[in-house]
């Protein structure tokens, strides 16, 4: 187990095409299934509504971080914050990064989502601050143990 | 996804937060790593080789106990502590859920740009 989600996918389309699909808010909305109110702008909040069947009542909210043309697009958000009654705004958001690389056949897209270790605690545990040191390494140890014993 | 399923997903997600928090501390990670070996340890055994006091170790064990990662077992007068992997598997399920959502979104992106 790791506290980072990593995906890599080969797309048979030029980098410029993939960049547009990621950063044009209407195009992003089509494949991500969200209706966004306006364009993505670095440092700005992006708002909208999920259009994915069954999730229509859910609001989309993210803060755009980096927009380095045809290279890096990133935003922070609350991953799959699906309970409309819950206030996710107090949580530390996770960081989603899309990195693009040109390949002979098109584009390599690397997606990472990080920051799950900072997902909040209940109030009684609030006093204990998060600590990143050695986390990944330790989690690997724990994972191999869990895999062995289950 | 039905309302019921959604609520359950949110509830699961809520339950996971304290587990992440409990593991977000080097001392507790070290305790978990030690207890992971499978055998139960007494507080004295856990304090040995550590710069922390019995009280400090006890406090950390309580946090791990409160999220169900550690169980206390009593034999006679001695209390010992053992590891319970269940909550960690819970975290794994949550990350698997988010991961699965990304797989679906990226395959829609693929179809979208390759069209």
Q: What is the compact description of this entry?
A:
The complex is a heterodimer of chains A (150) and B (115). With 150 residues, chain A is α+β, with helices and mostly antiparallel strands.
Which term fits the overall shape of chain B?
elongated
Strand content of chain A: 25-35%
Number of domains of chain B: 1
Q: What is the element string of chain B, with H for helices and E for strands?
A: HHEHHEEH
The overall strand count of chain A is 7
Measured between the Cα atoms of the first and last residue of chain A, the distance is 14 Å
Helicity range of the residues of chain B? 55-70%
Shape of chain A: globular
CATH architecture name of chain A: 2-Layer Sandwich
Total E-strand runs of chain B:
3
Q: In CATH terms, what is the architecture of chain B?
A: Orthogonal Bundle
Describe it for me?
The complex is a heterodimer of chains A (150) and B (115). Chain A has helices at residues 15-23, 25-32, 135-149; strands spanning 4-11, 34-36, 45-50, 59-68, 72-77, 94-103, 106-114. Chain A is α+β, with helices and mostly antiparallel strands and 150 residues long. Chain A has one domain: START domain (Alpha-D-Glucose-1,6-Bisphosphate, Chain A, domain 4, 2-Layer Sandwich), CATH 3.30.530. In chain A, strands 1-7-6-5-4-3-2 form a seven-stranded antiparallel β-sheet. The longest helix of chain A is centred in the C-terminal third of the chain and has 15 residues, at 135-149. In chain A, 21% of the residues are buried. Chain B is of the alpha+beta class. Chain B has one domain (3-114): Arc Repressor Mutant, subunit A (Orthogonal Bundle), CATH 1.10.10.10. Chain B has five helices and three strands, in the order H-H-E-H-H-E-E-H. Chain B has helices at 3-23, 26-35, 43-47, 54-66, 86-114, and strands at residues 41-42, 70-75, 78-83. In chain B, strands 1-3-2 form a three-stranded antiparallel β-sheet. In chain B, a hairpin with a 2-residue loop joins strand 2 (70-75) and strand 3 (78-83). In chain B, helix 1 packs across helix 5 and helix 2 (26-35) crosses helix 4. The two termini of chain B are 28 Å apart. The model of chain B has no long low-confidence stretch (mean pLDDT 80). At the A-B interface, strand 1, helix 1, helix 2, strand 7 and helix 3 of A face helix 1, helix 2 and helix 5 of B.
């Amino acid at each position: 187990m790791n506290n980072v989600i990593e995906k890599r996918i080969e797309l048979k389309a030029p980098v410029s095409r993939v960049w547009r699909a990621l950063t044009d808010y209407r195009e992003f909305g089509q494949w991500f299934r969200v209706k966004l109110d306006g364009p993505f702008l670095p440092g700005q909040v992006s708002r909208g509504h999920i259009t994915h069947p069954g999730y229509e009542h859910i609001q989309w909210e993210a803060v755009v971080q980096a927009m380095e043309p045809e290279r890096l697009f990133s935003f922070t958000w609350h991953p799959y914050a699906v309970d409309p009654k819950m206030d996710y705004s107090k949580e530390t958001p996770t960081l989603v990064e899309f990195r693009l690389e040109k390949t002979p056949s098109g584009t390599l897209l690397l997606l990472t989502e990080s920051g799950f270790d900072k997902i909040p605690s209940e109030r009684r545990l609030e006093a204990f601050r998060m600590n990143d040191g050695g986390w990944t390494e330790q989690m690997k140890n724990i994972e191999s143990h869990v895999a062995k014993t289950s | 996804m039905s309302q019921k399923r959604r609520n359950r997903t949110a509830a699961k997600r809520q339950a996971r937060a304290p587990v992440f928090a409990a593991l977000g501390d080097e001392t507790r990670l070290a305790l978990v790593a030690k207890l992971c070996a499978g055998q139960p340890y007494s507080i004295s055994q856990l304090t040995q080789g550590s710069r922390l006091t019995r009280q400090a170790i006890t406090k950390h064990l309580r946090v791990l106990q409160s999220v169900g990662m550690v169980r206390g077992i009593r034999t006679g007068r001695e209390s010992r502590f053992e590891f319970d992997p269940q909550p960690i598997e819970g975290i794994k399920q949550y990350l698997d859920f988010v991961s699965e959502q990304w797989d679906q979104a990226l395959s829609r992106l693929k179809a979208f740009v390759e069209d």
